[in-house]
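In this notation, each integer encodes one residue's backbone shape. One such record reads:

___
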Amino acid sequence: MHHRPDPSISSLSEDIKKSLIAELKQFVSTENEAINLGITAQQRLAILQQETSDFTIDKLVDMVLRAGRRIHCTFEPPSL
């Protein structure tokens, strides 16, 4: 039996990526800042254009942490 991915999971994942990229955007405003964070020119451009397809959540979390930001997560039961 094959399970199809839940579209709400995919949407939630995309929302998380967008939030992380929005946070990163302020840190990569200059090339020097991006280089200091270990972000390539191509990654910087993707962040500035808020394109999420080139990034995993793990990679974005790593970049945000290297920028010196803290990340807080909350977990909630599913709504019925």
Notes: The helical segments are 7-25, 31-36, 41-48, 57-66. The longest helix spans residues 7-25. The chain has a mean pLDDT of 86. The CA atoms of residues 18 and 52 lie 7 Å apart.
